[in-house]
Amino acid sequence: MGIERSLELSNSDALVAEEMEAFAQREVLPYASSWDKAEAMDPEVIRSLSKRGWLGALAPEAYGGQDMDPLLWGRFCESIGTASSSLLGLPTVHGMAIQAIARWGTDAQKETVLPMLASGEAIGAFALTEPEVGSDAANVQTVAEATGSGFRLTGRKRWITFGNIANWFVVVARLEDKPTAFLVPSTNSGLKITPVKDMLGFRSAELANLHFENCEVTEDAILGRPGFGFSHVAGTALDHGRFCIAWGCVGLAQGCLSASMEHAQEREQFGKPISEHQLIQRLIADMLVGTRAARGLCLEATALKRAGDPRVIMETSIAKYYASQHAAKASRDAVQILGGTGCSSEGHVERYFRDAKVTEIIEGSSQIQQLIIARHGLMQHRKEKRKKATNP
Ligand SMILES: Cc1cc2nc3c(=O)[nH]c(=O)nc-3n(C[C@H](O)[C@H](O)[C@H](O)COP(=O)(O)OP(=O)(O)OC[C@H]3O[C@@H](n4cnc5c(N)ncnc54)[C@H](O)[C@@H]3O)c2cc1C
Question: Whole-angstrom Cα distance, residue 98 to residue 90?
Fold first, then answer.
């Protein structure tokens, strides 16, 4: 593809990556199951992420962020993904809000909101899905009407990750029938936030439903231009979201692999460790190969992101599609290898199993990724064909 594939971290970033991994193992993994059971995220771990500057790391340096290198960010998502998918939801959606504002916001919006998101003093979330509109997201039904001094939003948003504790929402609504993004603070009196409980996975990701009723916002709340809400603002946000989830799935699959190898070498049945039974070896081999392949696809997308290459959109979809499917399979096989122990909540694989399934649905389901990948692939094919025809 003409892109440098041997990706490496600088020496200082390599140290940060080690610190991130240690943080995830020490301060996240041991507590992730209890957060999952409580269906709530510990505010202390959020403070720890903010204190280290990792929550807002992708914000531009000019606004207090770090403009973090995509490879280091990928490693961060991988480390957190091994420990807690719910917690990974936070840098994912917070980063979606940051990326959308950094790319499409006015100077005033950037100056007002980005520094507080970058420092972690405020939490950002992304509100696209509605009760009647999921995958067909360009068709959102939440309405924005001009009032003369600004806009009035009316409608509902569903399953908004960290919506329960977010301070700022990027909300996509229809303005004169065009999908348009708005920046709405959680303190707006026309916005009602209701916690969502009892989901299959991502149970401590502080999900919420949003109800906009007479939700008045000022004229300068528009993010990007009218009509840009889905194609541009959500496009930027979702590309970031897929990147985070893809890397997080590599981490989750790696967690499944470690738990499976550990258990298979300790547990004896029929007079020997189950790791010596070839049918178990087959599961481990597939898990190992799939995890390597998923990491390779994430690295491919990371190289394009680093290079600012527009092909990153397709490669990120490919990475998210493959890594989430692999994570779901790896978690299923990990439960199989651990047997009854895998079905109990005393370890991590039962949680991995529930969370991995969700990754095949969020940030565009597997079917939506297939549509995106095929559309981009066909477009590239036509482009190459035209190029060959003009330069035989
Ligand atoms: C834990 C969790 C967190 C979430 N966080 C957020 C968030 O922060 N912000 C937000 O806006 N949303 C969020 N969502 C919503 C999520 O983005 C949607 O669930 C997702 O986009 C799918 O929409 P849907 O659930 O309405 O399913 P539908 O769109 O109703 O799809 C149902 C099934 O039909 C398939 N399908 C749909 N269209 C096609 C097609 N054209 N071709 C083939 N198959 C198709 C889908 O792949 C899926 O399998 C979250 C959801 C969950 C579960």
Answer: 12
